[in-house]
Specification:
Distance between the termini: 36 Å
Number of strands: 10
CATH class: Alpha Beta
CATH superfamily: Ribokinase
Shape: globular
Helix content: 40-55%
CATH topology: UDP-N-acetylmuramoyl-L-alanine:D-glutamate ligase
Structural class: alpha/beta
Number of helices: 11
CATH architecture: 3-Layer(aba) Sandwich
Length: 305
């Protein structure tokens, strides 16, 4: 196991670039029915755009698409078909999603997505066949944990961003005895799960840890302001955006997915720290977190002091 002490340097931004230059992100999430989840995919999309990607598409159940786009009008929308019971129609979603992903450079799946059988089918299909970077968060991770033998289907280039509970569900499904909570065991836990799955794993929490199964990096920050619903959706959006911008082979400043994940965690944490210095350690709203990203990126690039 190789411990990495520093996060990667944020690549410079091409002053001659255009929206296609900076990557296209697709966010698949949201749910309708008795307990609709509208904010989560909108927050991920907002964070993706605030992190510098050129275009972002949200693919959400048809009934909630207008509401999601009213929150994030800078994104484009794709309506996922549902059945009479307000559940996703998996077979119909496959075609719609395939069309949406033709030009996508990175995909984020899971924010507010729900955990029904249709979601499981969609997540497994994408995890086995998507050819670009794939960020799995929230309900996508729960969907995996409830899918028998899911590890054998993970063929895509995947970054997983579980909190401790989602991590524990994945580990339990794999019959791994790992403790994602105790600070003394988190490094072993994240490295073991990443090695088992062949993925990048971001174990969120105080001093978030990132591993690809060989390398491991630990954030220096433990910021209580991030203890708010939606902050994880913001992280998944940043991660997807950085993957779209910096993980392409033809990029002048290409990063691998481990570096992408570390950089996303660093920007996420620094944004919260900057907010807390002015406002204290409670009350940060996730949309404020997303909106603070550009100034942190500018400071890391030396564009502002």
């Amino acid at each position: 196991m190789e411990r990495i002490n520093n996060s990667p340097t944020l690549p410079t931004r091409d002053p001659t670039g255009y929206k296609g230059t900076f990557g296209k992100v697709c966010v698949i999430g949201g749910s309708c029915g008795d307990h609709p989840m509208i904010g989560a995919p909108a927050l991920a999309a907002r964070a993706a755009l605030r992190s510098g990607c050129g275009l972002c598409t949200v693919a959400v159940p048809a009934p909630i698409l207008p509401a999601v786009l009213s929150i994030i009008p800078a994104a484009t929308g794709v309506a996922l078909p549902i059945d009479a019971s307000q559940h996703l129609f998996a077979a119909g979603c496959a075609h719609v999603i395939d069309e949406a992903l033709i030009n996508a450079d990175a995909l984020v799946v899971g924010p507010g997505f729900g955990r029904d059988q249709a979601q499981q089918q969609i997540v497994i299909r994408l995890a086995s066949a998507f050819t670009k970077p794939l960020v799995l968060d929230a309900d996508a991770l729960r969907a995996l944990a409830h899918t028998p033998d899911f590890a054998r289907d993970l063929q895509a280039s995947i970054i997983m961003t579980p909190h401790a509970g989602e991590f524990a569900a994945l580990a339990h499904a794999l019959e791994l005895d790992l403790d994602p909570v105790n600070e003394s065991t988190r490094e072993v836990a994240v490295t073991t799960l990443a090695a088992r799955l062949g993925c990048i794993v971001v174990l969120k929490g105080a001093h978030t840890q990132v591993s690809d199964g060989v390398r491991v990096w630990r954030s220096e920050f433990a910021e209580a302001a991030l203890a708010i619903g939606g902050s994880g959706d913001v992280l998944s959006g940043i991660t997807g955006s950085f993957a779209a911008q910096f993980a392409q082979e033809n990029s002048a400043h290409a990063l691998d997915l481990f570096q992408v994940a570390c950089l996303a965690v660093q920007v996420h944490a620094l944004t919260a720290v900057a907010w807390s210095r002015t406002n204290g350690h409670a009350g940060l709203l996730p949309e404020e977190l997303a909106d603070g990203i550009p100034s942190i990126m500018a400071r890391l690039r030396g564009e502002i002091v």
